[in-house]
Amino acid sequence: MRPVTEFSDAELTALKEELTLRYEEAKAANLQLNMARGKPSAAQLDLSMELLTFPKSWTLSDGTDARNYGILDGIPECRNLFGELLGIRPEQIIIGGNASLNVMFDTMAFLNMFGTGGEKPWSFCKYEGHPVKFLCPVPGYDRHFTICEELGIEMIPVPLLADGPDMEIVTKLVKEDADIKGIWCVPLHANPQGTCYSDRVVSLLASMETAAPDFRIFWDNAYGVHHIYEEVPLMDILEACKNAGHPDRAYYFFSTSKITFPGAGIALTASSPANIAEIKKHMAAQTIGHDKLNQLRHVQFFQTPERIRQHMQKLADILRPKFDMVLDTLEAELGGSALASWSHPKGGYFVSLDTLPGCAKRTVALAKEAGVTLTGAGATYPYGQDPNDSNIRIAPSYPTPGELEQAVQILVLCIKIAGIDKLLHDRKN
Amino acid sequence: MRPVTEFSDAELTALKEELTLRYEEAKAANLQLNMARGKPSAAQLDLSMELLTFPKSWTLSDGTDARNYGILDGIPECRNLFGELLGIRPEQIIIGGNASLNVMFDTMAFLNMFGTGGEKPWSFCKYEGHPVKFLCPVPGYDRHFTICEELGIEMIPVPLLADGPDMEIVTKLVKEDADIKGIWCVPLHANPQGTCYSDRVVSLLASMETAAPDFRIFWDNAYGVHHIYEEVPLMDILEACKNAGHPDRAYYFFSTSKITFPGAGIALTASSPANIAEIKKHMAAQTIGHDKLNQLRHVQFFQTPERIRQHMQKLADILRPKFDMVLDTLEAELGGSALASWSHPKGGYFVSLDTLPGCAKRTVALAKEAGVTLTGAGATYPYGQDPNDSNIRIAPSYPTPGELEQAVQILVLCIKIAGIDKLLHDRKN
Description:
Two copies of one chain form a homodimer. Chain A is α/β, with parallel strands linked by helices. Helices cover 43% and strands 14% of the residues of chain A.
């Protein structure tokens, strides 16, 4: 398709009529398709069914009966397995409950209630009229933003560039403003663009000067082993922080939510020895320990990091054709049209798409009306406010291939209709 | 044994010598026995092994795939089962993670961070120099006290009488002091005395006038179906609060920790519709939902409330001989001696024993030296401070019957030695 900007008004109007006809046909089909959330498909989940046959034994290497109380930071077998997978020392890992979101919320809540490193509780800053602020690379993950919003932490959007957050802006802000106490990062196959952080960005995040002594990086490596097209390396943030003289700067999060069963997996946090000791002290008041049988279930099912990687390859084999279909369709239908641009992820769960400015909400609404549920427009921005109203997150994983094909065709149709309407409207004014 | 107070000095000294000899023999045996925590025994855990063969299907009645994301407040099947068991409407129940301790901590943390019913966050009270206070019936559960201590909530001990907290003291305190914003209650087979709350006490707790509008009862019904000798009824606290015009006063907690596998079970909270809505709002920022497969595992294993009760009977059959042994030995060895008094629980996990004043720490230390680990003396009081230094919590569940017999004999020996030493010392001064 040639750029719509080169179309005459008459051509645009004619095209719009044709598209509207096809849109009405789509609506009449009464479809119910969902591309809203990054949910694994049933086919992916089926690959983990054997997990449910474990644990087959429950006496741990140290003699502990995993069926009973105990072990605050997770069974050694589990910390070893994921430590080896992620290149983190097991003693710097705490296995959490069933989801990293919960671990992230609790970590933020602990900072809110207790502070860290001898600094005052972050809630105290709010009480004193200087609420804590967090940097949020955008577009980003809506549930990160919800944690901040719920805890009264002000969010400052910063652009996410091709190799990570815009470090020129980030380094300047954190140096100047002591209320800025952290940044959200999804360093590999970021939600939603698929961005992977370069070594340069990781080094800068670890070494940059911050006005707040208790500045913290929330390193949500949700897609750390979720490569689809290409394995992408990632610099070790904990090591980088340590080497830069800021050993306590980063909390690392990871989970098996998109490895085995979302909500029935295990999550972990990793950090410096001082941070881990601090978290364990708070945790000791909160729990006797998380679900050791589920930890053991995962250990006995996977056995080795290598087998986790093989499992991820099988999942990638299911996801790849779906991503291919989305990307190929976008290229075939919108390539060169100037109506949209989109990301080309190497892994993760999403494609990030930008419509013409002011067209995202309309596009999502049109799709909804035609039976295709997308992530709400604006959800990828703090407070749900996309200043350009242009970003749409596409989640290709959950629908079947057949459903996905229908859904993407409808999405494309809606992008075109919304975009052409906008153009015609702009030309009139 | 006749009262030691009637013994002459010479008699006491002779008795002491004999006991010390036996104590040295016990020490020489190098035992390693543990009566410290309320842990189920391996024999109890063995009764739940079939649980691990579930779930055998994962499509919920509403069509949800329980293997995937979703359902914030727990699968309906699970809320129905435990709602029926406990006489609580399913829509007033939220299924939590693997332990009620975590749910209790989080509930208290939410109050701390967000407040409730439009009142200010409890952490703000602390910043304003008026820290929130909680009433703690004593002796009580150490982990309740740890939650308060960690969150900076001041604890006021109130006596636990035969049918519940001393309501004369409680009603007076909560009426006068607006900083008192709650009370911990273990209403059935209380930890450690086995006390069961009478209808009179429950009614008073529900109806009493409190200076704090956001006064809350933390109703930890940990032993709600854990009857050993006798089924004890309990008045419905949520209904009582509602009827008394304080619908939002109570949070109800329960878990399967001592029903199936501690740490690999499920927990729940129940409260008024307004409180549940408030908690769900906070929870929505914390999690997408807890482990649905483990919820389903429990539902498919138990199927009906009746089968849970039958399961509890089997567990009671294992626990009863242990409680018999402890109570019989205490009676045989210490009955009439005036050296100790103890509770006669009808269920739960503990026997509460009081030594002569000033003898608990010494007794626990003596036992430790002879290889018997008991709950630390003082642990049953806020801040670990038993003003009389007399209370010891006995947990008979974990050791095998053979180990338990040895452990109780040593405990009795230590109680006698510490008591007689104290008497002799007092007579000298």
